[in-house]
Amino acid sequence: MKIVIAGAFAIGRHLARLLSRDHEDITLIDSDADRLSKIGSDYDLLTMEASPTSIKALREAGVGHADLFIAVTPDESQNMTACMLAKGMGAVKTVAKIDNAEYVEPDLKEFFANLGISSLIYPEMLAAEDINNGLKMSWVRQRWNVHGGALVMLGIKLRQSCEILDRPLRELCGPDDPYHIVAIKRNGETIIPGGNDSLHTYDLAFFMTTKQYIPYIRKIVGKENYVDVKNVMIMGGGATAVRAVKTMPDYMNVKIVETDEERCEQLNDIIDNENVLVIHGDGRDLDLLNEEGIKGTQAFVALTDNSETNILACLTAKRMGVRKTVAMVENIDYISMAASLDIGTIINKKAIAASHIYQMMLDANVHNVRFLMTVNADVAEFVPVEGARVTRRDVRDLGLPSGVTIGGLVRNGKGMLVSGNTRICAGDSVMVFCNGLNIKNVEKLFV
């Protein structure tokens, strides 16, 4: 597959590294040589120093026969222009990163497609969705829904109150049990568990279950004492905070703490919601936090542009009694550290955006792809076609590669867990967890 990426900024570099795992034909264009040099020489791709909107440069990059053109510079207009040019020159699919929430309205999809932009990516909106998913279930580190929640993956940090510790999984996760353990993160290592493995204190365990059994999962992991989130404090009033607040449930009360007085005035104009209070101050100020009632707050969300600040602020909030913390960590090098410090939910916009773009390069009918940075693994929702290899045998006889497990599927709108006796059918939505193996190898089973 021929892929051209315009913009060697954070998302572009991360995406280039992610796609280079699959040994595709990748060209990365940017007008700044220093940014291109940050990609490193260890990745199999071509870099080109040029403007992403230069027709000459696009031709030299081979856009005319590109399967996918991705524009992810910080300039929304440049991204859209580059996509229009690339599509006009013959690119099959184009993706533009944008900053305007108005553009992602569903009724505008056809309009932009006619302009030559196949898909729009708004990272702040994607991040806000992840934040709100975490806040709705305060006891869960990560939540991933399939078909509106017919099937659910829950990442849960296990404490001593968990009822299912130190028992072989074969005793816990049989064909008739309401959950499967699809992955375990332990001491920096990701484990795709077998029947002889067991759960330990402080594991980050990923449960696959169906919606009706979520209360049961909450009970057996000992999280019933976690109160539901009603009061939220957000540090940082940027675009991600605005999108999160605008899409939060009505029952949540929010305080946004922002250091810039002018931005506070803007936030008061942008957010017309009586449940939202904007406070001018520093979210690291302990006196301010106490004054604003952090002890009565169930969730603290740190969304400043500084990863270190967000991590430290969440640690402080935890020590002050806040159970649920969310930190935006844009520096990939800090993610493992943040996870080891027991920060809580970690948000990385570049990884979220890259996951949504990544699915466009797959040939199978892939509805959703997520790269789980905390466990260095991919989760994908595949839909097999008629006659696909995965539909010809029971799951136990498929010979799945090492590091791959099928957690569940959705058939005719109903979520089902998968056992060795399950026969997958064409049209099922199948949830696949991949560790240490690029997802393109798994894709071959579904086409």
What integer is the average pLDDT?
88
SS field, number of helical segments: 14
Strand order of the largest sheet: 3-2-1-4-5-6
Helical residues, percent: 25-40%
Which stretches are poorly predicted, pLDDT < 50 over at least 5 residues? Answer: none
Radius of gyration: 22 Å
Concise synopsis of the structure shown:
Helices cover about 25% and strands about 25% of the residues. The protein is α/β, with parallel strands linked by helices and about 450 residues long. The longest helix has 14 residues.
Structure description:
The model has no long low-confidence stretch (mean pLDDT 88). With 447 residues, the protein is of the alpha/beta class. The chain contains 14 helices and 22 strands.
Properties at a glance:
6-stranded parallel β-sheet, alpha/beta, 27% strand, 447 residues, 14 helices, 27% helix
List the helices and strands and how they pair.
Layout: E1 2-6, H1 10-20, E2 25-30, H2 33-37, E3 46-49, H3 55-60, E4 68-71, H4 76-89, E5 93-97, H5 109-115, E6 119-121, H6 123-136, E7 142-146, E8 151-157, E9 179-186, E10 189-191, E11 204-210, H7 214-220, E12 231-235, H8 239-246, E13 253-258, H9 261-270, E14 276-280, H10 286-291, E15 299-302, H11 307-319, E16 324-328, H12 335-340, E17 345-347, H13 349-358, E18 365-372, E19 377-383, E20 404-411, E21 414-417, E22 429-435, H14 439-443
Parallel strand pairs: 1-2, 1-4, 2-3, 4-5, 5-6, 12-13, 12-15, 13-14, 15-16, 16-17
Antiparallel strand pairs: 7-8, 8-11, 9-10, 9-11, 18-19, 19-22, 20-21, 20-22
Helix pairs in contact: 1-13, 6-8, 6-13
